[in-house]
Hints:
Largest sheet: 4 strands, mixed
Pfam families: YbjQ_1
Distance between the termini: 13 Å
Structural class: alpha+beta
Organism: Streptomyces gamaensis
Protein name: UPF0145 protein ACFP1Z_26720
InterPro entries: UPF0145_dom_sf, UPF0145_YbjQ-like
Number of strands: 4
Family: Belongs to the UPF0145 family.
Strand content: 35-45%
Amino acid sequence: MGIEEYGGGQSGEAGVLVVTTNDVPGYKVDRVIGEVFGLTVRSRHIGSQIGAGLKSLIGGELRGLTKTLVETRNQAMDRLIEQARARGANAVLMFRFDVTEAADIGTEVCAYGTAVVVSPQQ
């Protein structure tokens, strides 16, 4: 496609273009497939909660929690891409993340957007 794509597999699978915009300059939307999402819920273990509590007293980045959140977001995005590809999309428009506390036991991360088929404009 000429633009950075995500989720290209080693087996020759094409990647899926993921953008936060409503369109892609130089491309036209041939077909709107619909909403796709990737969801994951991560629980916090007691060690990270204690470490984060102590770190918050002295200030600074909570590196363990940052690492966990990055991994969680990546997992949600991977699931979004899998769903888009399974439905025949080669792009996801209006991509967003939503993060919610899940019943005081963890964090829910949802990656969502609109799955579409795009092609270069002539």
